[in-house]
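Priority: low. Protein: threonine--tRNA ligase. Input follows.
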Amino acid sequence: MIRSRTSRLAAAALSRRQWTCPACLSKRQYSKQPEKREPPDHRKLGNQQELFMTSVYSPGSPIFLPNGARIFNRLVDFLRKQYVRYGFQEVITPTIYKKSLWAKSGHLENYAEDMYSVTGNKRALDLERTTGCCGTDHAKNEAAVEEDDDYGLKPMNCPGHCLIFASKLHSYRDLPVRYADFSPLHRNEISGALSGLTRVRRFHQDDGHIFCRPSQVEGEIKKTLDFVKTVYSVLRLGVSYRLALSTRPKDHYIGTEEEWARAEDSLKRALDASGMEWTINEGDGAFYGPKIDIVLKDSEGKEHQTATIQLDFQLPKRFELEYQAPAPEYEARGETTDDPELLANYGPVRPVMIHRAVLGSVERLLALLIENYDGKWPFWLNPRQAIILTVNTSDPVVEWADEVRNILLGNKKLQADGLPSLESLSGQTGLAVDMDTTARPLGTKIREAHASGYGLVLVVGEQDAKNQQVSLGKERLSPLETRDRMLRMVDTFE
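Result:
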C-alpha cells in the first residue's frame, strides 16, 4: 500500500517525537540495563562440559567422565611433582580396616556417626572336615573369625600412616618422615547435605602426614603454608583464600588441655611467622588436635574449607610411635643441650604428627575451579586442549591430520608385525587432542570448536598436507613445533 504525503509526514513527525522524548527513550531496547547473569554453577557447567555425573545407585559419589577425569588426573599429577620438592613419599593404603584399628585411633568413639561399617559374609564352619586331636580344623576356625570381624571404610588415612611409621625403627636423623596418599575416603554425610562436588560421601584427598621432632614443628608448618601458597598461585586462587586457626572443641576431644595449649601455641607462632593474616575459630578443631584451615570463596560468596594443617600429639601416643634420640627429655621438649653426659644417653621420644592436605578434597576444589574459571580452563588443565579440523575429506588431508595427531600425542608407528616397539611405548606427551574429519563446512567446525572450549584449533588442508605442516590461525607450523609449543604451555601452567 502506498501512503499519501500527509500520512508520511505525520508518521515522520511521530517518529521524531518518539526518538527525542526522554520517557520513550528510556523504554528503548538499547537503553535497558543488561540482565544480571547468574553466578556460575559447577553442576550446570559440569553437565555442559561432560565432566561428571551422579547416580541414584551411589548418592554422594560423583562419577567422573573422561573430560573430568583428565582435569582430576592433571591436578593429582601436579601435586605429585611438588611432592619431590617438598620431600613427600607416596604410599597406597587399604580402603577398609578392622574396627579395632578405629577404636585404637579414637575414631570409633568420636567419629562413628560419620563412618560406614563393612561386614563380611558370615560363613558356617564345615564341621565335617576335621583335623587334629579335637576334631576341628584350627586354620579354618581362625579364618572364619578373621572373616566375621566388622570393618570400617576409612574416612581418613592417618591411622594407616601411623601403622607404616610404626613398622620400622627410626632415629632422630630420619625425621621428618613425610607420607602422602591419594586413596579414596568415605564419610557418611546426611543425604540432605549432598551437593554436586562440594559435599560428597566418596572423595579423594591429597592427604599427607608428617612425623617430625618437636623442634621441627614450626618449620614444617611454615613449609606447608608455602606449599599451599605455591599451589593456589598456580591455580590462580592466590588472593581469594583466608587462614583460620581452629582450637580445642568443648566436647569430644582426646588429650589434656595442657597438650592442646602447647599445640595451639605452636600453630599460632607458625601463622605469625608466615606473614599472612589469620583469624581464630574457637572450638572448631578436630577431636585429636588444633588445625589451620584454608578457606576459599565460591562464585556466590559462600566459603568452603579446602586445605588444612592439623597438629596432633594424640595419635602418636595411641599408636605408641617413637624414635631414638640423644638426651630424650630435652628432645621431647624441643630443646637442645651441649652436656656430653646427657647426649651420650639415647632413649625413645614420641614424634609429633602433622596432618596436611593442600587441595583438600579434590572434588570440592574442582567444583570451585569450575566456577572460578566459568568453564574457560587454562590450557594446562583444559580437557579439550586442541582439535584438528580437516578442510575436506580427501585421503591425503585425513591421513596427514591423523599423522599430526599422533605426533602431538607422542604416538610412534608400530613395527612391521603390528606390535609396539619398546621405543614407541615411551614418549607420550599426555596432551588432549581431538580430530574432526566430518564433511561439513570448515567455518561451522571452527565455530563449534570454539564453543566447545578447545584451547587451540588446528586446521589441515591440501597445502598443509603437501608441505607437512598445520595451520594455527595465520601461522603455519610443523607438527613438532606445535607439539613443543603446547608442552611449553603445559609446563608454564598457561
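The chain is about 35% helix and 20% strand. The first strand starts at residue 52 and ends at 53.
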